[in-house]
Structures are given as structure tokens and as C-alpha cells.
Amino acid sequence: MQSKPAAPVVQVRALVKRYGPKTAVNGLDLVARAGITAVLGPNGAGKTTTVETCEGYRRPDAGTVRVLGLDPVREAAALRPRIGVMLQSGGVYSGARAEEMLRHVAKLHAHPLDVDALIERLGLGSCGRTSYRRLSGGQQQRLALAMAVVGRPELVFLDEPTAGLDPQARRATWDLVRDLREDGVSVILTTHHMDEAEQLADDVAIVDGGTVIAQGSPEQLCRGGAENTLRFSGRPGLDVASLLKALPSGSTAAETVPGSYRITGDVGPQLLATVTSWCAQHGVMPDRIAVERHTLEDVFLELTGKELRA
Amino acid sequence: MTATGTYSPRPGAAPLGRMIAAQAALETRMLLRNGEQLLLTVVIPTLLLVLFSSVDIVDTGEGRAVDFLAPGVLALAVMSTAFTGQAIATGFERRYGVLKRLAASPLPRWGLMTAKTLSVLVTEVLQIALLTAIALALGWSPRGNPLVVLLLLLLGTAAFSGLGLLMAGTLKAEATLAAANLVFLLLLVGGGVVVPLDKFPEAAQSVLGLLPISALSGGLRDVLQHGAGVPWGDLGILAAWAAAGLAAAGRFFRWE
């Protein structure tokens, strides 16, 4: 693993961005450090506006934005070679072939990746002489991803990198994103898929209504607030009161149906050890032991009172 | 500790000259691959030259028809590439986020515009070579100073580029497509390309004469057909259009 540099890769303070009468981003604060940061939220939450401000496309109406320590608008020339950008859609000449466009973007950089290897890696070799407008949506997405990383950037912005991808292509994208982090590239990605944020991100910023309403690692976010549940099966009629005494205060324990037990509370490794050792003392074989952790989906529902619409 | 994996960062822009050359080469390839563009830039000028030189449809005045037509068709070639072709291509690049994506690349915006201009010039060289060869085969005998011809072609390119980019950068792609083709057709008919301006009513002539296409076709004809010196009036009209068009494009062009 890389030693983490002290300075954040992205620092957004009190960002405001309006489009006419509509306020897209409303006093948003975001600090992203090395690694993978997911900006998670429903459509219209202000994710794309925030990312596009970091990319230098939009001028903030208020607040400051620093990317790799630079102002994305005033110091664009210094910043551009150091970042990779994947737009939500488009970005390629409709008559260009995938390989041709990727080679072109590579030529704009001083030390690009091996284009053949990248094409192979992302399964774009089959696109052959097909022009961009005739590629499938998934192929277009993978080409846009390849264009974002080919210049060997320090920081990559991916705007909904897996939208519309089939599960296999999605996994291939996730694998590449993880490899980027492994090699020391920082990634900022927007998504409205909870599982994507949970699977990939070191840090998640939940955005709603133009502000960050919670930020932390997926574990921190899932632990905070909501309780988790542990279930196991055993012989019916166990002494639940005795079990409860062994658990930390604030926990609950109940036999929901004969032979099925449910424990709620701060379900972590310590609690799991307590339950299994209690079972051992009482000669109980806990069958089908399962921890039901809260997902980011639950967290989002709790924070906003609404479902994350896909 | 430094990571040494495949993707470990090693950022940097390519040398500016290499970026602009690569961009110009790509833009030229896109243009030459596009069938509709080739129709405008190659097929129509060639057909007009061959057809009107061999069949006596329009009264082209004294002398051989090809001597009248070749300068007009060269002007048309410049307009088709610098104005119509560039407007349509740039309009769709804007619509499909190509300009937006390239704006995030190490290539600066002025570098992109330079590459577009180079691509237009390369295309024009190919067009002019082809049309000149055909015209010579049809018996064309050009006169005048080649440097003045070059100056007219360059100023014409600047004038039409400014207007084409202004259209592409302000209108929707579909509107640009329709308007650029319509303007092409109107200027083809009313700009002294194949129909002499003196066929129009006198009141119309004075207005049509101020169009960039009329200035370019008229200026080229003065030099190439009549062996005139420097057509200052036409150069002045083209320079004014170039200054106004490029200034307006620089002011109003929207990248997204």
C-alpha cells in the first residue's frame, strides 16, 4: 500500500452552484483523500455538478475548490495533465473507432499506458473497425473509462462509471478501479448504486439536496446510528435471559420462533465471540449463524427518509 | 514508498506541437471518412466544374467557360470546408461532448482551434489540387500572381471559419446542420460561383457583392481569369468578414 500523502486530493469548501433559479449545489463541503471516494446520492443531488466543478468545467458561484492543491479554473493548464476524466456520456467523435480514439488521447500525454494492454484489459479488442456511434452502451462506457486512465493520471474522476453496464462489465470496471488504487491512483466516482459504493470505496460522501449529509467509510456509516442484527438457529427453548446477561448493555435477545434467535445491538467481532462462547458453555451448536449488517441503503433511507432512486 | 504498478501515476502533457499535429490528423481523418462531408467538399464542386464546363447551361460571358468556372469552384471548395463542413462537424462535436472531453485533456483550447484550422487547410489543399487538375484537364489556363491567389484563399478561409464556428458554437447541432446546408446552397447560387453576378438585378448585385463568397469568387476571378493585380476591394471585404466572424465566434462560442 501507498503511504498516504497528508494533503487531500480534493478539497471543496462551502461550494454553491446555481443554474438560473435552481440551486444545484448548496454549501457543499467535501474532503477526499488518497484512495477511492464515492459520491453517492440520488439523481439531481448535485453529484455531477460537484465533480464537474472539480474538473474545471464550472465556475463556483461561491466557495472554494482545490484539486491536487490547484484551482481547477485558474490553474487548469497545470491541473489537466494530472487528472483523468470520464464524462457521464459521450466525449468521442461519432465516426471514430474505439482504438483510434484511445490512441489519440494517449498521444496527448507524455507517458501514456500501453494502449494494446488497456484495450485487452477492458475487452475493447472486439470493437475492431466499428465506429463509436455503433458501439454498445457498455463498450462506449469502457472506452470512456480507458480514456480517463490512459494518461497515467494521479487522480481520476469517474461520473457514474457503471451506469447501464451488465454485471460482468460492472465487475471488470470495479477490478480496474481497485487496481488503480493499488497502484497509487486516487479515484473520485459518483454513483447511485449503494453496492458500488460499499464494494469499492474507502470513503463515501452521501449527497442529497446539494450538500453532503454524511461522510465516512462504509463501515463507519453502516455502524453509526442504526443497530445491526445477528441471527442463529439452535435447539428450541434456550435460556435467552442468561444469554442477554452475557451481552453488553443495550443489546436485545429474543427467540423469534422456536429454535430461531435474534440479537440486536453493536454487532461486532466482540459480540459474536460472546455469543459463541455462551453457546459453547451451554452445549449449544449455533446453526446458520448470520450477521445482518445495515447497508448504505438503510443508512440513506434513515438520513433522508427516502429511497435512493435508481 | 513508490508504487510501481501498471497504473502508477506518471502524468504529463505531450509536447504542444505533437498534440496539435495529432489533433489535426484526427480531425482530418474524421472529415475524410464522413460521406456527407465528402459530398459537399469534393463531389459537388467537381460535378459543377465538369458539368458547367462541358454543357452550356449558364452564360458565363466571354472566353471559355472553364476559365470562368474554375475560380468560382475554388471559392466554393473553400466555403464548403471552412464554413459548411467545419460548422456541421464542430456542431456535432459540441453536441456529443467531444469538445467538452478534449477541454479536460492536456490540449489547450487554442491548440484545439489551431488543429481545426490546420485540418481545414489540409483538406483545402487536397480539394484545390484535385479541382485544379480537373480544370487543367478541361483546358483551364490560369493567370495572375499565385501569391495573391494564396492570400485570397487564406482570407476567405478565415472569413468562412469565423462564420462557421460562430454558427456551430451558438446553435443546436441539428439547426447548424440545416442552416449550414441552406447557406451553402444560397451562396452557391447567389455568390458568383457558377452564375455571374451580373445576371441578377442591379439592386441585388450591390448587396450580393458584399457577401464573402462573392468577394472570394470575384477576387479569384479577377486574378486567375483576367490577370488583375491585387483585388483590394475583395480582400477588404474578406478581411472585414474574417475580423467580425472570428471576433463574434470568440465572444459567443459555447463549448457545451
Question: Outline of this structure?
Answer:
Chain A: Residues 10-234 form the ABC transporter domain. Chain A: This is ABC transporter ATP-binding protein. The complex is a heterodimer of chains A (310) and B (256). With 310 residues, chain A is α/β, with parallel strands linked by helices.
Word description of this protein:
With 310 residues, chain A is α/β, with parallel strands linked by helices. Chain A is 32% helix and 27% strand. Chain A is built from 11 helices and 13 strands. In chain A, the strands form 3 sheets. Chain A has a 6-stranded mixed beta sheet with strand order 5-6-7-3-8-9, sandwiched between helices. Chain A has a 4-stranded antiparallel beta sheet with strand order 11-12-10-13, with helices on one face. In chain A, strands 2-1-4 form a 3-stranded antiparallel beta sheet, with helices on one face. The longest helix of chain A is centred in the middle third of the chain and has 16 residues, at 167-182. Chain B has one domain (16-52, 62-252). In chain B, 73% of the residues lie in helices and 0% in strands. Chain B contains 10 helices and no strands. Chain B has helices spanning 16-33, 35-54, 65-95, 98-103, 109-137, 146-170, 173-190, 202-208, 212-224, 232-252. In chain B, helix 3 runs parallel beside helix 6 and helix 3 (65-95) runs antiparallel to helix 9.
Write the CATH homologous superfamily of the largest domain in chain A: P-loop containing nucleotide triphosphate hydrolases
Question: Helix fraction of chain A?
Answer: 25-40%
Figure out the total of helices of chain A: 11
Mean pLDDT of chain A: 90
CATH class of the largest domain in chain A: Alpha Beta
Question: What is the percentage of strand-forming residues of chain B?
Answer: under 5%
**What is the number of strand segments of chain B?**
0
The major sheet of chain A is characterized as:
6 strands, mixed
Largest interface, counted by CB within 8 Å of the partner chain's CB: A-B, 42 and 37 residues
Q: Low-confidence parts of chain B, pLDDT < 50 over ≥5 residues?
A: none
What low-confidence regions of chain A span 5 or more consecutive residues with pLDDT below 50? Answer: none
Q: Helix coverage percent of residues of chain B?
A: over 70%
CA-to-CA gap between the ends of chain B? 41 Å
Content-based structural category of chain A: alpha/beta
Which oligomeric state applies? heterodimer
Order of helical and strand elements of chain B:
HHHHHHHHHH
Measured on Cα atoms, how large is the radius of gyration of chain A?
Answer: 23 Å
Order of helix and strand elements from N to C terminus of chain A? EEEHEHEHHHEHEHEEHEHEEHEH
**What is the residue-mean pLDDT of chain B, rounded to a whole number?**
94
Number of domains of chain B: 1
Number of strands of chain A: 13
